[in-house]
Amino acid sequence: MAGPDRVALKHGAGGRAMRALIEDVFLPLGGPVDGVGLSAMDDGAALRVGDQWLVVTTDSHVVQPIFFPGGDIGRISVCGTVNDLAMMGATEPLGLTCAVVIEEGFPREALERIRDSMKRACEEAGVTIVTGDTKVMGKGEVDGIVLNTAGFALARRIVRDDGLRPGDRIIVTGTVGDHGMAVMTRRRDLQIEGDLRSDVAPLNGLVRAALQAGGEAVVAMKDPTRGGLASVLHEFAQKAKVGVVLDGPSVPVTHEVQAAAEMLGIDPLVVANEGKAVLGVRPEAVDRVLAALRAHPQGRRAAVVGTAVAERPGNVILDTGLGRRLLAESDGEPLPRIC
Hints:
Elements: H1 16-26, E1 35-36, E2 45-49, E3 52-61, E4 67-68, E5 71-72, H2 73-87, E6 93-103, H3 108-125, E7 129-137, E8 145-155, E9 169-172, H4 178-188, H5 204-214, E10 218-222, H6 228-240, E11 243-247, H7 255-264, E12 278-281, H8 286-294, E13 303-309, E14 316-319, E15 324-326
């Protein structure tokens, strides 16, 4: 078990521990930029280029198992990067990079399967991989395969994750917990009735529809990956210095995810998603944005799940329908090697 002077798994799993590690160790790498830089701890950077913004993001991907119901590490690598761009308002990616670190002895058939999955995801997102790098490590020096992808896009307007003010509404674009529970049930070989599958998908088309409907009334966006919906809401609340009231019964959760969550003793609110977005929207535009989301195949179960309030700034209050309590942010996601 790692001590206080060592990095632990929780430091890469979302939540408080990961943010603290980034703030303590990596933020000093950042410096002043004309736009959004490292210190913002957003889904990417935004650099001024003429009258537009160049949005850049990068992500590394590890998951165990590599192949799971609904996806694989290749699909996550493409979708995760496209989605991080989209969360900044950049829904037309110009290109992606891909670096692959492969363990000696990794099956070539599996590598080609991952490649094909990445290609299909790129086609869905309307993007291509334009450059990359390959490294091979010795047996036991890396766990199978690690992918790093970076993406870049141009946008006229940047959407940050700190734009909430009291009265704004919170929308989630679909059911929560699907990805993390699909990976965990495969990892543990749990038998769950129904079709429990990861939601991993590129969200740029869905987000484009929301932005077209809501315009500047869409004031915050983030995808609830590591740490789940709970982590996103805490980031929204802390950065905007507002409270967030989460209406628990309104949060969409499938029967399969609920069953798996009860079996494992894990709250779906803290479980990773790879095909959902959380939006903060001014109240006058909520109906328009919700209608646009529900008209899109990926947003049919979109729901308004919360409200920003002036009370309890930096906190998330869960309204269960029977009472209210503070929703704690996990120190680190309880499901390691998820994305």
